[in-house]
Amino acid sequence: MKDKTYQKAIKKFLGNFGQIDAMSYHCIIGIAKGGIIPATYLSYWLNLPLYTINSVSYVNKQKFPPVVFVPKHIQAFILRKKIILIDDLIDTGDTILQAVKRLRSGGPSEINVVTVFRKKSSPIVGKSIITLKDKWVEFPYEKTY
Fold first, then answer.
1. In the chain, where are the structural domains located?
2. Which of 34, 64, 89, 94 is positioned for an S-S bond with 117, CB 3.0–4.6 A?
3. d(Cα 105, Cα 101) in Å, to the nearest integer?
């Protein structure tokens, strides 16, 4: 994937949120690593606080069951709050499902899942901007220099 494709996707991603009532949400939670960039953009766009959680599921392009880490201060903050959970890509859906499961233990009133990209074979159908054929996605921030 070329950088311009990602840039166009981010612009489209932000454009889809022009109609969102930011006052109805309390925060944005980005899943590290890939979800932090679109979450940061959206945080500025909607003027909402940004928190991050961490997920580990790939090592050298090899997939493992995801492990999601949610800091205790985020668990405490989200009680009875409406949150937007953002990642860059839904592939198998495992990371999103684990993240939602972990965040639900904090008692939010609502979790809205948003991604920039979604693979066509993904069993998870959330608000995604671009649906991709099932291939490995090279993001501009994953380049090795």
1. 3-134
2. 89
3. 7
Q: Tell me the β-bridge partners of 79.
A: none
Q: Residue 25 and residue 12: Cα distance in Å, rounded?
A: 21
The pLDDT of residue 141 is above 90: no
CATH fold for the domain made of 3-134: Rossmann fold (3.40.50)
40 pLDDT above the threshold of 60: yes
DSSP class of residue 3? H
Query: CA-CA distance, 53 to 30, in Å (whole number)?
Result: 6
Q: What's the rounded Cα separation, in Å, for the pair 16 and 128? A: 10
**In this predicted model, what pLDDT tens digit does every residue of 107-123 receive, in sequence order?**
999 998 888 888 777 77
* Whether the Cβ atoms of residue 106 and residue 70 lie closer than 8 Å to each other: yes
Residue 6 main-chain phi, psi, to 5 deg? -65, -45
Query: Helical H runs in 58-108?
Result: 72-77, 94-104
Pair 86, 42: CB distance under 8 Å = yes
- For CA atoms 52, 27, 78, 63, the dihedral sign is negative
pLDDT at site 140: 66
